[in-house]
Amino acid sequence: MSDLPIANNQMRTTQIVQIRTESPSVKTFIFTDRLCSKAKPGQFLMLWIPGIDEIPLSIMDTSNSLVSVTVKAVGDATRHLHDMVPGATIGIRGPFGNDFTESRGRVLLIGGGTGTAPLLFLAKRLALKTDHLVFVEGAKTANELLFINEVAGICQEKNIITTTEDGTAGLQCLVTQPLASLLEKENFNMIYVCGPEVMVKKIFEMTEARKLPIEASLERLMRCGIGLCGSCVIGKYRVCRDGPVFNTIQLREMKDELGISKIGFDGSRIPF
Amino acid sequence: MESNALSISCAGLTLNNPTMLASGIMGYSTESFQRIANSGAGAVVTKSVGIQPRVGYVNPTVVQAESGIINAMGLPNPGITIFSEEIKFSKMILRVPLVVSIFGYSAEDYAEVAKKASEAGADAIELNVSCPHVKQTGAEIGQSPKLLSEVVQQVKIATNKPLIVKLSPNVTDITILAQAAIEAGADALTVINTLKAIAIDVETQTPILGNIKGGLSGAAIKPVALRCVYDIADQFKIPIIGCGGIKNWRDAVEFFLAGASIVQIGTAVADNIEVFQSITKGIENYLRKKNARSVKDIVGLAHRK
């Protein structure tokens, strides 16, 4: 939860301080923002690209007054953001939404694509509480496997599994593939997931079959970011206000929609 | 106090308490309506639906202002044909009245959407008249007594469900529009829709909203909405649904005293989705304290000379 009542969290502008290229299609943008620098892993912010669009982004890291977000160029807004240079002005609202609970014990983190970003933020916090972190990361191809070095700095090498769809790095399979045997072998106190919703759905089915606790961060079309417009609704929940992190019980309540259909720009239900 | 002190019948609708979800908030899906009803709303109003699907405006569509928010969603909706299925589904599940908000660019549009929404099971129709009239670019239907009257008359012919007209405050004298709606056959008035507003960023020196201008809601507009309710109640007998910046029981009671029989709550949902419950509880306590038997007993009391 943010400190302020939601309706008082006004947009403010700030300048991009630094831009890091993570892969051919992914960049991390670092800027100063007092409120968002207090965000917890799992929370998101709304980033305004002046004159173009405003998009929801998971917070990837905070330090002192700095905030980092990791963005893949996928559409008009994100491409404009990728074209920006340090010093460029952006608008920020947030932080919004809930955060991951920080579990102790044996913890498994599963990230798909840029979904790895908020999990890296979480893993840094968890590393202070537990010494058994397993990180599974999947991407389409080798150069899209994000934050490999950062993850290696937190988890022991034997506890990192990478997968690519084209086999250019790690195992050639979907990220869900190595999980079956991993979940057979090891018991986990908590499983954290962030990635495409269809991936989340598959992993949730696996954890349900084994009665394991899970927290998943979901991504939906978001407009207001403060629980009013209804664009990000899944079941009875609003991803922006009740999420973006949902627990086992909540995921059960939304299983008729999870990875099956979502609300489009015109408010109609569209299949994945 | 028995809970029927809170129940209210007006304009052909019976609510178990005098709070409604305002149009535009979370209003696409049955699951959302159900959640709002479970949070204590006496009725729910859908997002505004038109004939054709609309994707709405580009973001930012919502920006926080001092004591309120400005929105320019751009009437995103799936169109009445698809939405009729959602209305039917809602009617099977929902135990509170479902009011369908509709918009159009001509009287014929409104009539067609109202007819389809009624056939699908809407308990009442609320007219959103704050969108531009195509044949008269720039002017809103809700700003012209003549256009408003035409729309209300056509919708009255198309449906026999209670007809609520949501008035725009962006006019010189809201009572003139109220009179036009009443004479054309409106069963109730929702007072008020958002106030036209703009947000400008000083750094980039540009308007923030994708659509440049939007509508202001929230605490900032409450005194204006209250005055509009007071003015209309002063002149006309029609049931009024007060709307604008209501976030607690005290706000709600102010609207009842000004002449409203029901209140709608929208923006306050951002801070607390359970707001309906706390407002209803507060109204109940107030009625007991003032020895009033029902909400009806306090409607319009501020007009005593």
Helix content of chain B: 25-40%
The ordered string of helix (H) and strand (E) elements of chain A is EEEEEHEEHEHEEHEHEEEEHEE
Report how far apart the termini of chain A are: 30 Å
**Coarse morphology of chain A:** globular
Major sheet description of chain A = 7 strands, mixed
Q: Which CATH-level-2 architecture of chain B?
A: Alpha-Beta Barrel
Q: Give the uncertain stretches of chain B in residue-range form.
A: none
Give the helix proportion of chain A (percent range). Answer: 10-25%
| Fourth CATH level, the homologous superfamily of the largest domain in chain A | Nucleotide-binding domain of ferredoxin-NADP reductase (FNR) module
Major protein interface: A-B, 40 and 48 residues
Quick structural summary:
The complex is a heterodimer of chains A (272) and B (305). By secondary structure, chain A is α/β, with parallel strands linked by helices.
List keywords for this structure.
heterodimer; A: 272 residues; alpha/beta; Elongation Factor Tu (Ef-tu), domain 3; Rossmann fold; 6-stranded antiparallel beta barrel; B: 305 residues; TIM Barrel; 8-stranded parallel barrel; 4-stranded antiparallel β-sheet; 33% helix; globular
Question: What do these coordinates show?
Answer:
The complex is a heterodimer of chains A (272) and B (305). Chain A folds into two domains: 6-96, Elongation Factor Tu (Ef-tu), domain 3; 106-271, Rossmann fold (3-Layer(aba) Sandwich), CATH 3.40.50.80. Chain A has a seven-stranded mixed sheet with strand order 10-9-8-7-11-12-15, with helices on both faces. With 272 residues, chain A is of the alpha/beta class. The model of chain A has no long low-confidence stretch (mean pLDDT 94). In chain A, α3 links the parallel β8 (132-139) and β9 (160-164). Helices cover 19% and strands 35% of the residues of chain A. Chain B is α/β, with parallel strands linked by helices and 305 residues long. Chain B has a single domain, classed as Aldolase class I (TIM Barrel), CATH 3.20.20.70. Chain B has eight helices and 16 strands. Chain B has helices at residues 30-38, 80-93, 107-120, 145-158, 174-183, 222-235, 249-258, 275-289, and strands at 8-10, 13-15, 19-21, 43-45, 62-65, 68-71, 98-102, 124-128, 163-167, 188-191, 195-198, 200-201, 206-207, 213-217, 240-243, 262-265. In chain B, the strands form four sheets. Chain B has an eight-stranded parallel barrel with strand order 3-4-7-8-9-10-15-16, surrounded by eight helices. A four-stranded antiparallel sheet of chain B has the order 5-6-14-11, with no helix packed on it. In chain B, strands 1-2 form a two-stranded antiparallel ribbon. The longest helix of chain B has 15 residues, at 275-289. The two termini of chain B are 30 Å apart. The mean pLDDT of chain B is 94. The interface between A and B is large, with 40 and 48 residues.
